[in-house]
Write the structure tokens for this entry.
Amino acid sequence: MIARVVVLGLALLAIAAWATTIVVTFPAYDLYLKEAFPQANVVLLTKGVSDPHEYQLTPSDVQMLLSLGPNDVIVTSLHAQFELRILQMAQSGEIKAKVVVVPQIAQYLTFDGRLVRGNWSEGGVNEHEHGLYVPNAIRIIEAVANATGLSPNQTYLEQLLELNRTYCCKFSGRAVAVTPAAEYILYWLGYRDIVVLIKEEGVPPTPQDLQRAAEYMEEGAPALAVGVSGETLRIAQSLEDKLREMGVSNPHIITAVFNGSYIGTMEQVVEQISQRTQTAQPAQAGSAPGYLLLIIAVTVAVAAAAIAVFKFRRASVH
């Protein structure tokens, strides 16, 4: 707690030293905003927090937010209760900074693969985009530029646009999203038949989703888990080991941890998926039925890991 107060105190000093501050409520929006606006002070409000969804504003947080001026901006996904409080404080005039509300400008996926623009009233919307859908990253950078009057770093912006031009819709067919945020990367890459294993906290994969995932992986489809900590790696490895022990052929899960370079991590994901699609061998005819008999047993193993995987560390993206 003392360490966090010290960090926030330093953040307050930094705010005073920079012309513009960009406060981000959730990872991984901060990764590309730091690169896009090197002239600004980008502050991740929930840095080091294991589960931003359950975060509550501290007095130091409130002090920092109240110190922001009209040239500053807050980027919020409105994904947690503390974010709603920030928006209320801004609407009441307590917070002077401008607010970029991500759902007002971003596109979201439904779990059945439809792309919608912030309309969560339809139901079945995957709210766990967490900055990992590249077209949304471009929109958010533009919105922050408009709100602050800052010009984004043109070299970085061109690199992000080139990333989108090069890899958007590069693949097609079936894929497995182990975490909800992974659906956004797979969809961006061109996959349209995606089974999402973990959709919400505390809700394990259904036997039907597990059956689909088993069929897809046996056919050579890529499986992806993304997060912002090493927990994603550990959970994926544990699941792979369990499946391997039960005789499942090639149960490889691609993992990506977004805690460094946004573009670099995306490129690593593409490279691993390319390798998977080039080396995967579909199951021979007649092998799938026996494989699918394992699904109910696998359900137990996966359900035990479901909550931990979804926690993105839950901090996501799924």
Summary: The mean pLDDT is 84.
